[in-house]
Amino acid sequence: MSTDSTSQGIESTLHENRVFQPPKAGEVGASRWLVESFAEYKSMYDQSIADPESFWATAAEELHWFKKWDGVLEWNAPDAKWFGGGTTNVCYNCVDRQVESGHGDDVAIIWEGEPVDGSGAPVDVRRITYKELQTEVSKLANVLKSKGIGKGDVVTIYMGMVPELAVAMLACARIGAPHSVIFGGFSAQAITDRVQDASSKMIITCDGSWRRGKVVPLKDNVDEAISIMKDSGNQPVEHVLCYGRCHNDIKWGELDRCWNEEMEKASADCPCEQLDSEDMLFLLYTSGSTGKPKGIVHTNGGYMVYTYLTSKYTFNLIPDEKQVYWCTADCGWITGHSYIVYGILPNRVPTVMYEGGPDYPSGARFWQMVDRHKVTQFYTAPTAIRAFMKWGDEHPASCKLDSLQVLGTVGEPINPEAWMWYRNHIGRGVCPIVDTYWQTETGGHVITPLPGATPTTPGSCTHPAFGIDAAVVNTDGEEQPANTGGLMVIRKPWPGMLRGVHGDRQRFIDTYWSTVKINGQPVYTAGDGARRDEHGNFWIMGRIDDVINVSGHRMGTMEVESALVSHESVVEAAVVGMPHEIKGTGIAAFVTPAPGFEASDELIAALREHVGNEIGAIAKPDMIRFTAALPKTRSGKIMRRLLRSIAAGEHEITQDITTLEDFSVVAKLAEKDES
Ligand code: WT7
User: Fold this and answer.
1) How far apart are CA 95 and CA 440, in angstroms?
2) In a shared domain, residues 529 and 587
3) CA 536 / ligand 1 centre spacing (Å)
4) In which domain, by residue range, is 572 found?
5) Does the beta carbon of 436 lie inside 6 Å of ligand 1?
């Protein structure tokens, strides 16, 4: 089985064999752990697997329903209906429920904008209460309605990390208009692909957003996308609503409406729509092995219950305990959906949002924010931790960090060195680390420690979340013995699971439900390789498809290849992952230039720029090498494994990357192995 290079990056180290027992709650300053021992976790877990319907009904009863469900689960693999017949509203549970229970003046969102004053203090800090959030969300929901947006109409959101982004998501949820949030780092072409695929009638954006002292011109990118769509004869957008964030000079076109003006006129009275449990809550585009990014579909009831419950237990969220939760992700990714907004607000613990770069104005920004807001739960990505390690220990050392109780990571396997650094330099050597394994498709955590219950080992995401029947199997669906690699599968449905790929039933079935069958029934295949150790801990070994994990973000190698060959200078391109100190996996591209084009540094720069325009900066190759021909097997398949080892520096061919390389010699040696 081939895995992306991340797995090879995790060397076996001393740390891999170390076991850290969860601390007593008092040792980290928490009043209590919701789950206090591994035995307690195990008995709850066993119950959740033995009788999932009663387990999930109990969880769902902690939330508000307009009408209770008829049945907890209807399962016709691969189609699940959770809480069928029930009606609810996710926005109601995030916002109105808190107001109605007398907590309207509690803080829902703490936001920091990026800019700082001369003394380094942030210029923009906002604390938004549930009551204020309710007013803003209701007004925006009325604005959307006034533009003809109603139940089922997809609204695209392309904004920076400002509270208005959460307001936009919640306003959509309030009226049953599924949102499709696009990460602000994506290009005009990427916006185009997603808006067209979703036939989205409306885009909500900002004039710009601050990132490392510069304005990201979000509205300009939207304008460009609209013009690309017009030219292609498929332009579904009727309105562009633009929030003014940084006084960036923008052009107002005929579709454009000003958020700030519209909100002034709007009424704050907009009751929540009573939505069916299985109505679509949102679409979120993510990369796959082939083709364009696919729109993953999540629905109201199951996703709400799943993200609520996993948030509560994974992070030990308890209201009225002065907790402050901060996830550093962007709402453009599933992590921001589930663990900044939808899972956290119903738990009534303030959620922190930060607009800008982690090293602006210095590498101490995050740690100063932890101290400033007395953050108790902190959730970030291994790639960020590796960057902090590089920026120097003096940054966290300059801060107290004594409010922290629980640390989390997500997005990619964490190398044990980074895990230990995180524990020692951020977690005072005592905070438990929850390494949460999950995917856009799973909606929420599927394998994770619980901070007060699970013994942890650096590099392992440990044990399944409640209700998750996770296993490592071979292609016949048989469980692998301990410490043997296999496919990561989930054998039972769970409430947060994806309900489909927007507009592409076949892709849904082919991607997730066709690789492994057990007793003739399809089971969910995650696309990751994994093993379980002798203690039952899961170790994720990396993607087994043509997807690479760059800084915790999923990137299809084929997407990058298509972007490269759409440049006039490229005849053929192959993209593979390569080990990267900070990103975990970097992008390596092998390119055959078209006649008349010379391998050169200028061409490398032009190709990187081109990929940035086609997809976004995160897709720019870290390394581009030119070759007269790509190494292929006799049957014509590109030898990716060989390219991976060349990219990793395991085969030295030439040192000068600007001359055309000839891989035919190594290819001959590798042929038997590849085919
Ligand atoms: C892929 C999903 C889940 C939100 C962020 C990424 C990898 C994710 C871990 C982890 C090892 C991880 C997997 C997975 N991944 N978390 N804790 N340990 N690998 O979401 O873009 O849908 O990517 O990220 O390969 O399949 P995504």
Assistant:
1) 24
2) no
3) 20
4) 567-671
5) yes
